[in-house]
Amino acid sequence: VSDSRPFGVRTNDTALLELLPAVSGPGCAFRAEVRVESPATAGIYFGRYSFPTASGVEHCLNTLTLREGENGRKVNVESVELNSRRWRGSGPGDGHNFGLTYFSREFPPAETWRRLEVRLSAAQVRVFWQGELLGETSRRDLNEGFKTLSANPRDPLNLPYDYAPSDPLGLFVMTGDAAFRRVVVEPLGDVRQTQP
Predict the structure, then answer these.
(1) Nearest CA among 14, 30, 36, 51 for reference residue 157
(2) In the chain, fewer beta carbons within 10 Å around the N or the C end?
(3) Can you give the pLDDT at residue 76?
(4) What CA–CA distance (Å, rounded) separates 20 from 22?
(5) What ranges make up the beta strands (E) of 121-165?
(6) How far apart, in whole angstroms, are the C-alpha atoms of residue 111 and residue 178?
(7) Three-state DSSP state, 3
(8) Confidence of residue 69 (pLDDT cuts 50, 70, 90)
(9) Rounded to 10 degrees, what is the CA torsion of 139, 144, 147, 151?
(10) Which pLDDT value is given to residue 4?
């Protein structure tokens, strides 16, 4: 995705665009600049697993997203969230989108590009917004989160999820329009030498 020609995604459901099926090395930094064009949730995903089931393919993934739109009584809220998601879109009325939020931060809305970044290692995930560290979560927490999602009473399944930094990476958009640019994946060691 070039600097001069952003990549746009429009969807009425959930769109996953895989960029790398696997990442080599002990860890990586994955970042992208995102701009939401209409009320939507958009960002990057990591740690994706896909499991075939009798009802369709079940996708388990973690997302760092920018969300713009109404939030309860607040209007034009811009929030950044780290989530684990369990999604199946096999057909009308047959899909679902279960989520678990690890943390969420709200900011004044801005019609501009925003930089999202995750730094992935075997032990933890560190989350950055506009270059600022927002928080981190552990591999254990991610795996426990998917145990909770797997036990959702609306559609309980035994999903053997196990986070690894080498898992597939991609772009994520849910119900709306978004644009992406300056998408970068680099070894984690290179980032530590130059950034906080």
Answers:
(1) 51
(2) C
(3) 56
(4) 5
(5) 124-129, 132-138
(6) 12
(7) coil
(8) low
(9) -150
(10) 59
